[in-house]
Amino acid sequence: MEMKDEELKLGAKIDDLFLNLLEIIWEDIAGAYVSSETTSFNVTEHYLIEFLGKKGSASMSALCRIFHVVPTTMTSIVDRLVRKGYLKRSHSEEDRRVVLVRLSEQGERYHQRHRSESIQMFSNLLHRLPDNGKNFYESLKGLNQSLLYLRKKYRQ
Fold first, then answer.
1. How far is the CA of 93 from the CAs of 55, 66, 96, 98, 99, in angstroms?
2. What's the whole-model pTM score?
3. Which residues pair with 103 in a beta bridge?
4. Rounded to the nearest 5 degrees, what angle is found at the Cα of 61, between the Cα atoms of 71 and 116?
5. Which fold is adopted by the domain 41-155?
6. Cβ-contact 41, 49 below 8 angstroms
7. Where are the alpha helices (DSSP H) in 25-133?
8. CA–CA gap between residue 129 and residue 118 (Å, rounded)
9. Mind listing the pLDDT tens digit for each residue in 126-146?
10. How far apart are CA 54 and CA 116, in angstroms?
11. Sheet of 99-103, strands arranged across
């Protein structure tokens, strides 16, 4: 199927929007969490903690697939966070060959604190919008639904 010129232009505009959003997230939002604890994490380590805080646990192979890294890279990331005290490893009860990763107590505390700070920060930002962020939320919700649709459709 050949792309039309207008589809390519729209694709470029969407790419620019995503890059702008990521820049805002990394510079402004991530900058709101400056402490000795958070500055010791790189972006992948931080989002690994956030992911496990949301999901509970995951296998090393699932983490490699989700974060798009090879097993040796994920092993290095997990090793660093285990040494820092934020993650724990265990073996699956069903299959002892499967290594599961989850947050330690320290990791749980970090995740809860960061989530609380994020909620407060977003609440403060949204309060500044004329409609208290309702349109912004609906736009993000629509974007999320579209991305979930595309993910499901193209993973089949």
1. 18, 22, 6, 9, 10
2. 0.75
3. 87
4. 100
5. Arc Repressor Mutant, subunit A (1.10.10)
6. yes
7. 43-55, 60-67, 71-84, 105-127
8. 17
9. 888 899 889 989 998 999 999
10. 13
11. 57-59, 99-103, 87-91
Mean pLDDT of the chain: 87
Burial call 2-39: b when 16+ CB within 10 Å, e when fewer = eeeeeeeeeeeeeeeeeeeeeeeeeeeeeeebeeeebe
- The percent of residues above 90 in pLDDT, for the chain, comes to 46
> Which residue carries 């736009």 as its tokens?
139
Domain map of the chain by residue range? 8-40, 41-155
Q: Is-contact 98 139, C-beta < 8 A? A: no
Residue 151, token pair as written in the block: 């993910």
What was the pLDDT predicted at 131? 93
Query: What is the average pLDDT across 86-98?
Result: 91
Contact between 59 and 100 (Cβ < 8 Å): yes
